Amino acid sequence: MAVEVEVFEKEQLAVSLAKYVADLSNKFTRERGAFTVCLSGGSLINYLQKLLEDPYIDSIEWAKWHVFWVDERVVPKTHDDSNYKLAFDGFLSKVPIPPGNVYAINDALSAEGAADDYETCVKHLVNSNVIASSSASGFPKFDLMLLGMGPDGHVASLFPGHPLVHENKKMGYLN
Ligand SMILES: O=C(O)[C@H](O)[C@@H](O)[C@H](O)[C@H](O)COP(=O)(O)O
User: Which range of residues forms the domain containing residue 147?
Assistant: First the structure.
């Protein structure tokens, strides 16, 4: 599989990312009637700010967006460590995505309970075709996953060398 890598300066990254996300949003809302996006934490939300400006803010079909998290900390949604709070304060509260299309973890559950609950939610959305899935594995195929990488090479909460890197059955897990 050919992989394309582009390198940007910070400001240019925000501009290019906004166009890339808007183009994908148009494509998937037209083709599937939904656009499924996974967010991470870290600096990502800052880089999404251009989507809140012209020409994107009024042209994107926000009502068709469905938002998920690749990783989340088991803290209340109001906690400063919450990736949901980070995204809500900096982005989601400023765009008209229906609240029912924003799939935060259930912070009333234990860590295990929240991971299982998230997996059940994702499976339900795969079964109802909101999330596309791989015909080979049945696994969800999100339209866009926006990931950051930490200095140690971790992506989401998957750390290099950790056994969870090899997990290939569960969709929601604890770390
Ligand atoms: O919850 C988190 O901390 C993130 O999901 C994490 O995986 C992040 O994306 C990377 O650490 C990169 O962070 P920066 O974008 O801040 O470099």
Answer: 10-166
**ipTM score here?**
0.94
Identify whether 92 is part of a domain: yes
Q: What is the CATH number of the domain that holds 131?
A: 3.40.50.1360
Any ligand 1 atom below 6 A from CB of 43: yes
pLDDT bucket at 52, cuts 50 / 70 / 90: very high
Local confidence band at 140 (pLDDT 50, 70, 90 cut-offs): very high
Instruction: Answer whether residue 76 is part of any domain.
Output: yes
DSSP string, the chain: ---------HHHHHHHHHHHHHHHHHHHHHHHS-EEEEE-STTHHHHTGGGGSTTTTTTS-GGGEEEEES---SS-TTSTT-HHHHHHHHTGGGS---GGGB----TTS-HHHHHHHHHHHHHHHHHTTSSEE-TTT--EE-SEE---B-TTS-BTTB-TT-GGGG--S-SS---
* pLDDT score, position 138: 86
Distance 62 CA to ligand 1 centre (A): 25
